[in-house]
Amino acid sequence: MNKLIYIADPMCSWCFGFAPELAKLQAAVAGKLQLELVMGGLRTGADAQALTPEFAQELAHHWQKVTATTEQSFNHDFLNQTNGFIYDTEPACRAVTLMGEAKPEHQLAYLFALQQGFYQQKLDITQPQVLADIANEWLDQSFFADLFDSEAIIEATKQDFEMSRMWQVFSYPTLVYSTGERMIMLSQGYAKCDAILEGIANIEAQLTQQPDDFEQ
Q1: Cβ atoms of 109 and 117 closer than 8 Å
Q2: 35-56 burial string, b = 16+ CB within 10 Å, else e?
Q3: For residue 122, is it left (φ>0), alpha (ψ between -120 and 50) or beta?
Q4: Which of 131, 142, 153, 160 is deepest in the core (most CB within 10 A)?
Q5: Could you tell me the CATH number of the domain that includes residue 94?
Q6: Is the pLDDT of residue 79 over 50?
Q7: How many domains does the chain contain in total?
Q8: What's CA 180's distance to the chain center, in Å?
Q9: What local confidence, expressed as pLDDT, does residue 82 receive?
Q10: Higher-confidence position of 137 and 215
Q11: What residue ranges are annotated as transmembrane (predicted)?
Q12: Which domain holds residue 186?
């Protein structure tokens, strides 16, 4: 079965803005196209950043733009904290990767739950315990904790980051149509479900008529 590959990050504001459209897309392609998640790693390692007043102002500007475009609401009170918060997206990405390994059928729902927790409920999803609490609907917390710290999950998360960069995806959300042999860019940045479905139909029509026109 051909599939859609969704490259995202739980702490990417545009990915949060895209969440309702992605939910519609998932429902529309169910049984026709598999949806696979790849974590992009928006701010990890040396790119992780302390929440300074200047950075908070920059984030607030981005969040306002997302709201204006998508109508997704943000709790801006999160940006007023002074507890030394570090905007590091690796733990949340690792948690989504973990859910994909343990309970793949709930991975997207977990991603949505993390986004709502961070952007609307002011939860610090850089903290393993918070990530485990949110996952508790699907996974036992002690099982989650064991997997979260395992070398296998840490390495799988790194592989997602490397794959995203190998595909030259540096902005999120991104959707790629994969035939197994070909990788075809479907959308990059926020898009409406109807437009994406139209893009899928166009790709599939061209693959049927002129399969050699696409490059991997």
Answers
A1: no
A2: bebbbbbbbbeeeeeebeeeeb
A3: left
A4: 131
A5: 3.40.30.10
A6: yes
A7: 1
A8: 21
A9: 66
A10: 137
A11: none
A12: 3-213
